[in-house]
Amino acid sequence: ACMAGCHNAPKTPAIDAANFDTATAPNADFYQYATGGWQKNNPLKPEYSRYGSFDMLRDNNEKRINDLFAGMTAQKAAPGSVEQKISDLYKMGLDSARLNAQALTPVKDDLDRISGIRTVKDAAPVVADLHRTTGNPLFAMGVESDLMNSNMNALYVSQSGLGMGDRDYYIDEENAALREGYANYLKRIFTLAGFEEEAAASAAAASLGVEERIARASRSSVELRDMSANYNPMTFDELKRRYDAVEWDTYFKILGMESPEKVIVGQPEVLDTVNTLLKELSTEELRSYLAAQYLSAA
Asked: pTM for this structure?
């Protein structure tokens, strides 16, 4: 059925010829042929790794939401209303004087908890809380539809825990300058978190060492595209047997999922490395890594 007035809606062509580069033969470079016009008319800004119509939509929505929230701050909202809560939260986020005055206070309790880790067993509840609230150190856990049965949701555990995101930033020689910049960034956030200069440098180096070991085991972005290779279901008992350094019962209890029936492991060999790390790392190295992951995400 057609809604009222839809006959008068302006027609937008499904394919815009201006987005093509017809000077390029499609059988020579189809990407350039199909997108050359768009690329020419939308030069890639330095802050983007890609820019297309969906990125444009996202940017426009961010502007609209920002304008909407900014408009709410000028209104006199009813106490307790959603509008008042959004307005207050928006003002709090922009209140740099308040944020600077608070300094470390908002993260202090969590940092103290991380620095209180004495054994690997102590780490499980801390990691679970970080996964629940802040970031994904060591590995990532989440729920998605089961790739082999879209009627069901499944629990996935997958490679994670790299502050720079992609393993190539840690491994490829051409990225040495990025690694140096990242090491300086870690030193800076530890310094801002109250560490003395020497302690900040030591904690940054320890964290980077852990990340490099995880990175060397991690699958490349190309390998991650192979869906069947990244679908490795295990029972809860199998998970506990293979990755015995993780206190899974404690971990899942904190996440509110006691004894899941099935867990799909994305990259089993990466979790093998994490399991080994948990057995081999000193508590100081583990604390430094978790603190870096937490501070960076917070």
From this structure: 0.79
